[in-house]
Design a protein that fits this description.
- The structure is a homodimer.
- The first copy, chain A, is mainly alpha-helical.
- Chain A contains 13 helices and no strands.
- The first copy, chain A, folds into two domains: 91 residues, no CATH class; 156 residues, Tetracycline Repressor, domain 2 (Orthogonal Bundle).
- In chain A, helix 6 packs antiparallel against helix 7 and helix 7 packs parallel to helix 12.
- About 11% of the residues of chain A have low confidence.
- The structure holds a DNA duplex.
DNA sequence: TGGGAAACGAGAGCACCGCTCTCGTTTCAT
DNA sequence: ATGAAACGAGAGCGGTGCTCTCGTTTCCCA
């Protein structure tokens, strides 16, 4: 059965949990109760579905944290829930759809962690906010290695990120651009190639900020650097070189602050 | 059977192909011909073994390039070679060992590509050498997406990189450090935390070069940045933002040259 | 020049995987 | 009340990595 066919069939059932609606929602007619209005009846079946959906998510999340995405098994989840593996296919069309939910949740988890960390800093303290964001990314990654690998590591083979993932994926990026937009325009203006100017303009536009494009270009480099360092640390490239990466990471953060002129 | 047991058993057979010796070699007594001296007899069996070993490697490499590490299948390799899958276990103790060979070969392929690119530049042209290295890394990655994912993406689940992989892995790094050692010491001396100084000293020592540690720290950051950008491009993070990453990548290379004072 | 040990390839089999299909049951909307 | 839809279980398909056995071939050395 194709994904779309599955959508059409499944759409006839009620769904209310975040993930379920995110996966299933798309503009098409609804049937019976649907409960987009939060109101009451909520039959036995709907309640059970919501609960099971949540349970599956919970177990999947715990399995992901334990064994990683590659070893995440639909059958194991079913086993832990005391269900036949085939039963899970009433809720997810495929293992990939399950992975998609986990990807979205991971992006959101990282995004919230970063936002919380930055919000704890005095907004006028740009250097402090930059450091907070960087360290929040790293600390989240260290605490959620498999989730980090899922969203920033090599993509799973047959998998193509569906549209639903792009918005949560930009949560951190948006904060990053917002921060840069608050910095004072750089003094050294290096020439930007025309296509690059266009791309950077697009980024600024997406984030809804006026930004000095030279500064933004530097920011993109630093953004890649942060994830590069975290990936090196988590994926083993730093092994035997920077087994404790605290110092080198913090040093790069300080260099980044200087490069952006935040100090 | 444990890996070590397999080693011990297998050691009794002759082996001469690069990979085979790399996997099997470790200090322990040899039995019968072994042919560490290249000389002649080379029985029928030994010749056949070497040939099949090479064939397996060839097919594995082609499968890796086609479908990626996660979908690389011992059975499929055996099928393509017209063998029973069990026969392959006379040559590799496990799928992981096969992957290990591919990891080593990938590191070497990247290393050679980078070295060739840098060697084509006038040694006195530090900026040119830096650019050559960076662009070589990226172009190799774009041409060998699955190999790149194998060595720089999320590690495969149960897999722990064996010692044999660390030397080939540092091929690019060594060139990088050598280049930096040729740059003039940086003017701005930012304070380095004591543990960081120690780690950077160790890096310089491994690479066998005298290096200004402040410059080396900047180099580590740029090194992470390069791989961060390549990973973003290959793994989809840049999708819809820098679909063509030529311009942004080259811009970062120019910024890196300035940061290292190579211009 | 044997003869025993080792290496070899094939095949069956085990436990797992994602996924599909059918079938009897339960819930729901009309 | 009834028919349609949703549900869970179970069997089953084709795939995986890996093991074990068995008959054959090659090799080393006595």
């Amino acid at each position: 059965m194709s994904m779309q066919q599955w959508f059409d069939k499944s759409k006839s059932g009620a769904h209310f949990c975040d993930m379920c609606s995110r996966i299933l929602d798309s503009p098409r007619p609804m049937r019976h109760n649907e409960a987009m209005n939060d109101s009451k009846p909520l039959g036995v079946r709907a309640r059970a579905r919501a609960e099971l959906l949540a349970d599956v998510g919970r177990v999947a999340r715990s399995q992901l944290a334990e064994v990683g995405a590659a070893d995440l098994s639909v059958r194991a989840i079913a086993r832990e829930l005391g269900l036949a593996s085939s039963a899970l296919y009433r809720y997810y069309p495929s293992r990939d759809a399950l992975l998609t939910q986990l990807i979205i949740e991971s992006y959101d988890s990282l995004g919230e962690h970063v936002e919380r960390a930055e919000d704890a800093i005095d907004p006028a303290d740009l250097a402090g906010r930059y450091a907070a964001i960087c360290h929040a990314v790293r600390s989240w990654a260290l605490d959620h290695r498999h989730e980090y690998a899922l969203i920033y590591g090599s993509p799973v083979p047959g998998y193509a990120a569906p549209a639903d993932t792009i918005d949560p994926a930009t949560r951190v990026t948006r904060r990053f651009v917002a921060l840069i937009s608050g910095a004072k325009p750089t003094r050294s203006t290096r020439q930007l190639a025309p296509p690059l100017t266009e791309q950077l303009d697009h980024v600024a536009q997406l984030a809804g900020h006026d930004v000095d494009l030279n500064l933004l270009a530097i920011g993109v480099g630093l953004w890649a650097q942060i994830y590069g360092m975290v990936s090196f640390e988590l994926f083993g490239t730093f092994t035997n070189i920077f087994d404790d990466a605290d110092a080198i990471f913090d040093h790069q953060v300080q260099l980044g602050i200087a490069a952006l002129g935040l100090d």
